[in-house]
Amino acid sequence: MPKIESPQNTTFKKCLSLTSAKGLKQEGAFLLSGEKLVREFLANPHLKILLELGTARMTPLPRGSLQHADADYLELSSELFAQIDVLGTHFNILVLEQPPITSLTREQLASYEPRGLEAVMPIGDPGNLGALIRSCEAFAVPRILLTQEAAHPFLPKAVKASAGSVLRVPLARGPALAEFPDSCIALDKDGTPIDHFTWPENGMLVVGEEGAGLGGKNFTQRIRIPTQGVESLNAVVAASIALAHRAASL
């Protein structure tokens, strides 16, 4: 079994790069960490396993499918493993091939027709992005459109916050939020109260970044979640309430 102790090792450096958006784009792979997520995935491995990472105190995990039985197990020194285990799971980490993310250009977006209610996310915080992706799966959002401003959905923190939803929900990467159609439905504190809004069969729901909001974009359909005592809700909470409201109205 290969053992890596040098931080200059090429394979180690590639795996470490997967903790950053730049490395994720270059390598086309991502890290799956956390015992629960790893074991759930191995029970039904629907993505290609490229490597399994561990230390001398860990043992290779049983593979749920013969097609993944030949994936290499790499033993890292405790120090090197800790650098890759950015979430502090202290459990075997899988290096998986990224699911495809469709690209949408500005020109394609101009004639784009959503199916059902799709979510548009300019969310730059990977934890919030992952949590929103989880809510989208819970309320059967058929597709998530990531704007140029959004964090990479396969950053370790995003994968963890999604509880694995990012492995299952179809994703597309579009242009900047400013390029999205004015007809999108936007969550906004100055919008129409959600109880007075009739959801369309098809549409795009924009969930603004906390702080940055909608970036000055003037969407024609704006809805808000009425609150008492606070000016606005966390983006994840607000989007989850809106998605639940739409699901209940169908």
Q: What is the percentage of strand-forming residues?
A: 15-25%
Helix content: 25-40%
Strand order of the largest sheet: 6-9-8-7-11-10-12
Number of strands: 12
Based on CA atoms alone, the radius of gyration comes out at 20 Å
Count every helix, treating DSSP H or I runs of 4 or more residues as helices. Answer: 8
Structure description:
The protein has about 250 residues and is of the alpha/beta class. The protein contains 8 helices and 12 strands. It has helices spanning about 10-15, 20-25, 35-45, 80-85, 105-110, 125-140, 155-160, 235-250; strands at about 5, 30, 50-55, 70-75, 95, 100-105, 115-120, 145, 170-175, 185-195, 205, 220-225. It has a 7-stranded parallel sheet. It has a 5-stranded mixed sheet with strand order 1-4-3-5-2. Helix 6 (about 125-140) links the parallel strand 7 (about 115-120) and strand 8. Helix 1 (about 10-15) packs across helix 2 and helix 6 packs parallel to helix 8 (about 235-250). The longest helix has 15 residues, at about 235-250. It is elongated and about 60 Å long. The termini are far apart.
SSE blueprint:
Elements: E1 3-4, H1 10-17, H2 21-27, E2 29-32, H3 35-43, E3 49-54, E4 72-76, H4 78-84, E5 93-97, E6 102-103, H5 106-110, E7 117-121, H6 126-138, E8 144-146, H7 156-161, E9 171-173, E10 185-193, E11 203-206, E12 221-224, H8 235-249
Parallel strand pairs: 1-4, 3-4, 6-9, 7-8, 7-11, 8-9, 10-11, 10-12
Antiparallel strand pairs: 2-5, 3-5
